[in-house]
Amino acid sequence: MKGVIDHLVPRLGGLLPRYGIVLGSGLGSLVDAVENSVRIPYAELPSFPVSAVSGHAGELVVGLLRGVPVIMLSGRVHYYERGDANAMRGPIEVLKGLGVQSLILTNSAGSLREDMPPGSVMRIADHINFAGANPLIGVESDDRFVGMTNAYDAGLAARMEKAAEKTGTPLHQGVYMWFSGPNFETPAEIRMARILGADAVGMSTVPEVLIARFLGLKVAAASVITNFGAGMTGAELSHHETKDMAPVGGTRLATVLAEMISGGDTDDE
Question: What predicted TM-score, i.e. pTM, was given to this entire model?
Answer without folding.
Answer: 0.93
